[in-house]
Write a structure and sequence with these properties.
Elements lengths: L7 E4 L6 H11 L4 E3 L2 E3 L13 E3 L2 H9 L3 E7 L2 E6 H9 L3 E5 L2 H8 L6 E6 L3 H11 L4 H19 L6 E4 L3 H12 L15
Parallel strand pairs: 1-7, 1-8, 2-7, 3-4, 8-9
Antiparallel strand pairs: 3-6, 5-6
The structure holds adenosine-5'-diphosphate and guanosine-5'-monophosphate.
Guanosine-5'-monophosphate binds next to strand 5, strand 6 and helix 4.
Length: 201
């Protein structure tokens, strides 16, 4: 399969800028890519629409989807459930678009055990201080939720440091620079991977 056709799995700590990069990509290329719209039990944030960012479902519906084997992968994150449905990914493939998944680390592990064979791209913050500032600045999380997400971020970064987990790393320091690299990866062009910063501040 040509590398352009392989799905792209985007992961990285909450607040690092994944949605921001994706939004730009989909605005610049409205027909090339298909976002794997996940199911989640978390409440929509202001401006989020059912079927666009997520399928927002109650916990009992999520459980019943698990029982029906509807998910390629699913995980608990910060007190809510998230999952990638087989049907959604198939739909994107049928449209002839490159499928892009935005998932956390437990999902990455499960995808590695599946037949999907994607390219794995990790988006790293330049520092933990910057990540904290972005999570707080987004204004969508309570203080407790920011703390939870930062604690999970440390685990995600530890996992990303393991060899062969990700094919590529982009440090989202300057957004324009990160976007140019991200666009190349999405279009199947070669880039030189960034080096994961120490992130121990
Ligand atoms: P994620 O989808 O990874 O959780 P978001 O895309 O929601 O993260 O970004 C979190 C916040 O950080 C948003 O308010 C966004 O505007 C901001 N942000 C994204 N990239 C950058 C950047 N390179 N520099 C500064 N702020 C950024
Ligand atoms: P948020 O609540 O900020 O939208 O997302 C929280 C985390 O859940 C992010 O790291 C995001 O990548 C991840 N996520 C979103 N959808 C899925 C999914 O379908 N599966 C998994 N495993 N993680 C997901």
């Amino acid at each position: 399969m040509a590398s352009f056709a392989r799905p792209l799995v985007l992961s990285g700590p909450s607040g690092v800028g994944k949605s921001t990069l994706l939004k730009r990509l989909f605005a610049e290329f409205p027909d090339k890519f298909g976002f794997s719209v996940s199911h989640t039990t978390r409440a929509p944030r202001p401006g989020e629409t059912h079927g666009k960012e997520y399928f927002f479902v109650p916990a009992d519906e999520f459980k019943s989807l698990i029982a029906q084997n509807a998910f390629i992968e699913h995980a608990e994150f910060s007190g809510n459930s998230y999952g990638t449905s087989v049907a959604t990914v198939n739909q994107v493939h049928e449209q002839g678009r490159r499928c892009i998944l935005d998932i956390e680390a437990q999902g990455v592990r499960q995808i590695k055990a599946s037949t999907l064979d994607p390219v794995y791209l990790f988006i790293s913050p330049p520092s933990l201080a910057a990540l904290r500032a972005r999570l707080q600045g987004r204004g969508t999380e309570t203080d407790a939720s920011v703390q939870k997400r930062l604690a999970t971020a440390l685990k995600e970064i530890e996992y990303a440091k393991e060899p062969n987990v990700h094919d590529l790393v982009i440090v989202n320091d300057d957004l324009d620079r990160a976007y140019e690299l991200f666009k190349k990866v999405a279009l199947g062009e070669q880039i030189t991977s960034d080096v994961l910063p120490p992130l121990d501040d």
